Amino acid sequence: QPLVSSSKWLQLHGLKRNKLSLSQILSQIGFQHRTDYVTTLGKLVASRYADGLFPQYKRAQDGSVYNLTAKKELILHFVECLMGAIKLYKQRMEWLTSESRQIFGVIQERCIVIVLDFGTVAPTEFDLCRDALSMVLVEQVTQIAKFNLIRAAQDLTKWQQKSTPVSEHTVNAAVTWLWTLDHMTAASHTSSAEALLEAMSDEAVSS
C-alpha cells in the first residue's frame, strides 16, 4: 500500500466520500419527519400524516426522526456497501499495526534522517533494534526519495555525509552498515541532541 496518512486515506475511502455516512444513507432511503413552528398556535408542531404509515428511525445524536420509504433491495444494497467498507477499514487497521508501521508509524516525508540512539541496551535488545530498523528501511524507506542514518555517540557516526537517493543498492548498503555497528560506544549527555542537530542541518530534510 502507498505510504499515505489516515486522513488522506479517508478522503479516498471514507464513508462520507462514498456517500455511506448515516445522514447520507438516511436521505436516500427516506425523508425527515418535520417539526415546524405554527404561528397561530404559537408552538412547535410535528407533522402526523406519516405516523403508522412508514417505519421510523430516530437518530440518537440529535433526536431527529426519519420516515423510511426505501424498498428492501435498496436497503440490502447499502448493507452490502457498508460490509465492504468495514472490510476495507479492517484491512487498513491491520496494515497500520503490522511490521515496521507498528513501531515507526507511516513515513510520509520524501526525505528523512533516522537518528539511532541505542543508549546502554543489552546485546539482544541492540539486535532487536537493528532488526526493526532493517525492516523500516526495506518496507518504507524504499518508497521515498532520500535518506540517511546517524548514530548518536560521543564520536557521532554517519552512514553518509548527507541524505542519499533511495535505490535498492543504497538501502542494502544501509542495512549492511547497521549490522557492522559496535554494540557499545562511548556516549555523552549531549550526544542525542548533537545527532538531532546534525540531522536537521541536512538541507534536504524538512522536518
Name the features:
207 residues; alpha+beta; Rossmann fold; four-stranded mixed β-sheet; three-stranded antiparallel β-sheet; 7 helices; VWA3B protein
How would you describe what is shown here?
With 207 residues, the protein is α+β, with helices and mostly antiparallel strands. It has two domains: 6-97, no CATH class; 102-205, 3-Layer(aba) Sandwich (Rossmann fold), CATH 3.40.50. The chain has seven helices and nine strands. It has helices spanning 6-13, 22-29, 72-96, 101-104, 123-139, 168-178, 191-200, and strands at residues 30-33, 35-38, 43-46, 56-58, 65-68, 111-116, 146-151, 157-158, 164-165. The strands form three sheets. Strands 6, 7, 8 and 9 form a four-stranded mixed sheet that branches. The protein has a three-stranded antiparallel sheet with strand order 1-5-4. Strands 2-3 form a two-stranded antiparallel ribbon. The radius of gyration is 28 Å and the shape is elongated. The chain starts with 5 loop residues before the first helix and ends in a 7-residue tail after the last helix. The mean pLDDT is 88.
